[in-house]
Amino acid sequence: LDMVIDHLPNPSKAQAYRIPKIWHGDTESEDGQSLVQCNPSGPLYFVITKIVVDPQAGEISAGRLFSGTMKKGETVYLNGMKAESKVQQVFIYNGAKRDIVDNVPSGNIIGIAGVKAYAGETITYTPSEPFEQIKHIFDPVITKAIKATKPADLPKLIEVLRQVGKEDPTIIIEINEETGEHLLHGMGELHLEVIENRIKTEKGVDVSTSPPIVVYRETVTRLSQEAEGKSPNKHNKF
Tell me, what's the pLDDT at 136? Predict the structure, then answer.
């Protein structure tokens, strides 16, 4: 923590050079200057980077507040979803603990409850230029079928899988149309084991999974022979 304090720039300094790279609006405008200066009195700009589902508070949208002050009870605009929503609670993070507050100024990493959104969403007061989308580029390499141990828990499992997919964008969940199985696609066997353990311990659903299925990929291993062909009109060679 001391190294972070001593060597990493504070938000008011960092945003001066970060904002032009992650926000493609006019930095000379009122909104742009507020973002560059990390102005707590300026227009609201909050970017969601993670969704956490809490048993008591529901969905908590965590992220960085780049401009303005986030206040409890305010109506905000979700630029990606093109919809308005009301902030029911505001949290400031103190390590792993969340403290409920009435308002938080820009430059902080915060959480808000009451807003149904996704990671990458830009929250403002009015329709505005959103921040650059968070892109997760990956190909799942392991697949497991998952089912509830008790058939009565199936509706609960479906809801839990929806929550897990929202919390972790690197997980892909689908239903096999032929077998009706719920399939989990992840980055590795350990990744899926962690998800399975979370479903059992945090979500309270007893599940069982199939043996992992590895997704194989084909690639070129050596150069092939060269061949010459002609187009049907005999005018082109390739």
Answer: 62
Residue type, 207: V
Strand ranges inside the chain, DSSP E: 45-54, 58-67, 69-71, 75-78, 83-86, 89-94, 97-101, 103-105, 109-113, 122-124, 142-148, 172-175, 182-186, 207-209, 213-214
Confidence of residue 26 (pLDDT cuts 50, 70, 90): very high
- Checking if the pLDDT of 21 tops 80, the result is yes
In a domain, 83, yes or no: yes
Same domain, 120 and 153: no
Enter the tokens of residue 132.
Answer: 């650059």
pLDDT band at 57 (very low <50, low <70, confident <90, very high): confident
Q: pTM value?
A: 0.75
Domain limits for position 26: 2-124
Crossing angle between the packed helical segments 30-37 and 11-22, to the nearest 10 degrees: 130
Does residue 27 sit in the same domain as residue 108? Answer: yes
30 three-class SS: helix
Strand order in the sheet with 58-67: 83-86, 75-78, 122-124, 45-54, 58-67, 109-113, 89-94, 97-101
Do the Cβ atoms of 212 and 195 come closer than 8 Å? no
Q: CA angle 200-92-54, nearest 5°?
A: 20
54 or 49: which carries more pLDDT confidence? 49
User: At 59, which CATH number?
Assistant: 2.40.30.10
Residue 227 in domain: no
